[in-house]
Amino acid sequence: MTALTAAASRARRNDSGIMFDSRAIATSEVIYAGALVAVDTNGRLIAAAAAASTNFMGMAIDTDSGNAAGTRYARFIWNCEVNVATNSTLSTDHIGMNCVCVDDNFVDVWTAYTSAISRCVAGEVVGFDSSGNAWVALRRNSTKGLTNLHVGDT
Asked: What confidence score (pLDDT) does residue 116 get?
């Protein structure tokens, strides 16, 4: 599994209720369009990863990098289904279950990350395509600890 090093084009479906938002990008963080994104403890956007103290936000639709002043923003979406790469442990047995971010490009089965602090939940696995990529219903699961929430945040 490899994190993104350039923008990724991801198929999207069932997006009639799609939600859009934007956040300041963390200092020196690069966010690529198509990346799965989260926020750190400061409420700044970062590439999603299996890491402590992050909250999943959605999929980035802009490519940009952060600065110390917090004046660089990236837009992202959620509340839709997105086609995401998986590893070999995620299978049709996991349809209907939550999946977690391995990095900004891959998701995995929830139980592969036994520590709750390493789980960045992307959403629910709703199906697979013919190449084995998962259709994931992106969800905003928590905004715990975030400040300055916008209307529409959950």
From this structure: 56
